[in-house]
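User: structure tokens for this one?
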Amino acid sequence: MRKKIYLKAPLTYQDQLALMESRGLSVTERTKAIAYLQEISYYRLSAYFLPYQQVKDSFNAGSTFEQIIQTYSFDRELRLLIFDCIERIEIAIRTQIIYSMALHYNDAHWQDNKAYFINPYYNKIGNLVDPYSDFQNSISKAKTARTPEVFIKHYSDNYSSPANPPSWMYFELLTIGELSHIYRGLRNNADKKRIANFFDLHQTVFTSWLHTLTYVRNIFAHHARLWNKDFAIEPDKLLKPLGPWIGAPFQNNKRAFYFVCALKYLLQRANPGNKLKEQLNALFAGIQTFPFSTWAFLLMAKEIGWIG
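Assistant:
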């Protein structure tokens, strides 16, 4: 396909609002609508237009600016709820990696033993994958930082050997992405299995879900959209669950609903007393009108008994 030249000119907030109105969107409070455009930006908000447009660039009859803002707010509240769940799961994953490895090998500094990690290799796009060296470089940066963490400095000031802090100390500095990288980089499947068993998952599925957790966590870091999103990194389907799980009609792992189901499965192991069901109930109770994609999420949640 022959590429075009991009000719769209920037528009003032007033012109952006006029453009939406010319496409059939009802705006009752213009001053308030312009304030939202100043705060959110037209382009970011335009992703929330889609369920209200059966025809591109033409709003369905009766669509209002208030509905779009409510959809945007729903997505924001959903992300905040999911972010809290990811935090709890991330801490549990960190704990299981630390103690499973440290206790099994009776080694507080197991992360410094190259034998526990896979050999370096080049991936499909030609990048070197070397979890052990990456981990050691990360430890070195933490130790030599201009203002190191208090517990890292305390170790360096008080202990001459081993050179690096114990795993349970250093792992507090790792991101979910680094945890995922280390887990994938463990040499022995038995080590991976032991960690994944805590979450009632096969290690292959756990590896995939950990990768997707990292992907979604990065979405949140950029305050990007979760609602009505096709996932670029899909979680593997759970074919042999060891606990309550969703049925065949809900197996679309490309969408947010499947990810939230996976999150709830992990959360039941990491935080059995979680309030996700009650939080979802409260979230949906506060929404007055729903676009189709949100209705689909709501109906599926009702169908599997998450919300009343």
